[in-house]
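stage 2 :: seqdesign
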């Protein structure tokens, strides 16, 4: 396949979006074979039939690197409660919050979980998403954590999308272990990780390091097991308070630390040293009406790569629009439109440990999004408008 008459935002790390005017992309065997100015296209890639994009913008297809899109039920009632004045933590302590989604997730079959997720997956794909990370963490017992991960992997059988799964057994303490988080880690969280890994269901291990969830010491025990199994880690860190999660994640060479509203410049330095990505989740900040913004300047100065994701989940971020996440990252956190686009392409791939997607570069997967816009800043600029023209997944239109 040869795409011509395109503007390319290659997002390959070169300045100004890696923009190429009058560009062409040659695709062979599902991979990008060549990309650059059409005038320089090598003869071997010249085809009789090419697709004329009439000046449209081509970017890498988008990557949502942090979602909880597999879950049971919804929490619209909790939304009402919070509007009546209850805080997220109060709702959680009253048995609502994550634990109510746990009950709904346990009650659902694997097929039901999958069917419940597909409309949101479809919304993501319709915005040019090619890769979705999906976490477990609403099962919180061995069978139900495995069920969630199997449902997550099954998304890729139903839709043309790459799925990366993260095991999030350390998401919340289930009711049957109330007040006994260490017993939960020993008796459920670690054995479920071993079982899920044995079934090949785990691409990364995640945790929630927070007052309403687990301490750094408890998370470290889960990370030790991940390390022993050779699985990379990531962490929900400093979302509602600073417990040292980002530093802990850095100690374990985490792929990413996520949320980070309460992170400091010191945390940023530790993450930069470890090469961990800061995953910025403005949907949760917005939904919880947080006031502390993540320290974007500190990440920028320290050279921490920033990703942006939806955090699509039924409680703190019932959002499935990655384009809206980009807009929010700019408006709420003062990220630039170029940083936001890098955050859903190159840096999102890095947050998942994926080296063959997220940029327009020879050798990488031909996962591309073609947009009816003139300039890449338009992607983050509009609110509630989807300019996707076509998506190319693994070289297929
Ligand atoms: N932080 C979040 O924002 C989500 N999980 C987490 O660890 C919220 C999950 C939920 O409220 O259901
Ligand atoms: Fe999350």
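stage 2 :: out
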């Amino acid at each position: 396949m040869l795409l011509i008459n395109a503007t390319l935002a290659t997002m390959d790390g070169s300045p100004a979006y890696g923009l190429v005017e009058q560009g062409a992309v040659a695709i062979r065997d599902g991979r990008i074979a060549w990309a650059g100015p059409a005038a320089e296209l090598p003869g071997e890639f010249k085809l009789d039939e090419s697709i004329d994009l009439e000046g449209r913008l081509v970017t890498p297809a988008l990557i949502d690197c942090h979602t909880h899109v597999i879950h049971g039920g919804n929490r619209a009632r909790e939304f009402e409660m919070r509007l009546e004045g209850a805080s997220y933590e109060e709702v959680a302590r009253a048995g609502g919050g994550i634990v109510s989604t746990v009950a709904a997730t346990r009650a659902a079959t694997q097929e039901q979980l999958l069917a419940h997720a597909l409309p949101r997956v479809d919304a993501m794909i319709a915005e040019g998403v090619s890769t979705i990370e999906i976490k477990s963490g609403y099962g919180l017992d061995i069978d139900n954590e495995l069920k969630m991960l199997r449902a997550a992997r099954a998304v890729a059988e139903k839709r043309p999308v790459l799925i990366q799964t993260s095991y999030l057994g350390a998401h919340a303490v289930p009711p049957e272990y109330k007040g006994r988080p260490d017993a939960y880690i020993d008796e459920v969280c670690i054995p479920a990780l071993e079982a899920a890994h044995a079934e090949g269901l785990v691409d990364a291990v995640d945790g929630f390091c927070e007052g309403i969830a687990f301490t750094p010491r408890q998370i470290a025990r889960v990370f030790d097991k991940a390390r022993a199994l050779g699985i990379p880690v990531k962490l929900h860190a400093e979302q509602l308070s600073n417990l040292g999660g980002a530093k802990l994640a850095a100690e374990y060479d985490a792929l990413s630390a996520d949320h980070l509203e309460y992170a400091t410049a010191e945390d940023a330095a530790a993450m930069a040293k470890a090469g961990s990505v800061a995953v910025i989740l403005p949907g949760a900040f917005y939904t919880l009406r947080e006031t502390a913004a993540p320290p974007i300047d500190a990440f920028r100065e320290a050279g921490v790569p920033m990703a942006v994701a939806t955090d699509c989940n039924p409680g703190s971020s019932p959002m499935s629009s990655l384009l809206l996440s980009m807009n929010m990252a700019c408006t709420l956190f003062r990220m630039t439109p170029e940083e936001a686009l890098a955050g859903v392409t190159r840096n999102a791939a890095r947050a998942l440990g994926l080296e063959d997607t997220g940029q327009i570069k020879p050798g990488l997967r031909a996962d591309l999004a073609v947009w009816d816009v003139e300039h890449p800043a338009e992607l983050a600029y509009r609110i509630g408008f989807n300019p996707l023209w076509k998506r190319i997944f693994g070289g297929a239109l």
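stage 3 :: structure notes
- The chain has 15 helices and 15 strands.
- The first strand starts at residue 2 and ends at 9.
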